[in-house]
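== Polypeptide entry ==
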Amino acid sequence: MAHSPDTLPDKAGLRSLALARRAGMDPQLRAVASEVAAGHAMDWLGDVAGEIVSVFSPIGHEIATEPLIRRLRAAGAQIALPVVLAPGKPLIFRLWEPGVELVATAGPGRMRIPAPPESAPAVAPDVLIVPLAGFDSRGHRLGYGAGFYDRTLALLRRAKRIEAVGYAFAVQQLPQVPAEAHDERLDAIATDAGIIRVVAED
């Protein structure tokens, strides 16, 4: 159930806690955990041959997605990456073919995010692999405060069935993430500790 604004825990504080845990991981452990999480994600996704799967280009201390992308391509999936159009707008997704060099594009705030060039086709993904600052076992996520994925998921889910899978390190899990009316829940979360299967809330 969504909380009222007056009872919401401090999202900024929870975000800082989860990000500090992530940043404190040993680099070697981070690499191993990324490979393990990729295996768990593939076990959950099953047969992805012919599907369009949107992954993300990791920034900072985010979990590496290259191990997952490698497995997805080997399984016959087409890979797309998100592109930020403008603040307050949903993301779009462009196909990323093997061998195509990514270009730096505008992200939230002053961030620059690698994405396919404008010549790459825009597509509607079947699966979204969603970056996380923090998450809980109910499928609620903390992003980075810009709301891009909430707006995007709401738009895509009105058009067709979309599977949204959070992707992060297990240390980023929180006991409870505050949920507001506009927040879009995940269908599952894949981490190095396994898969969190999200059940519907009453």
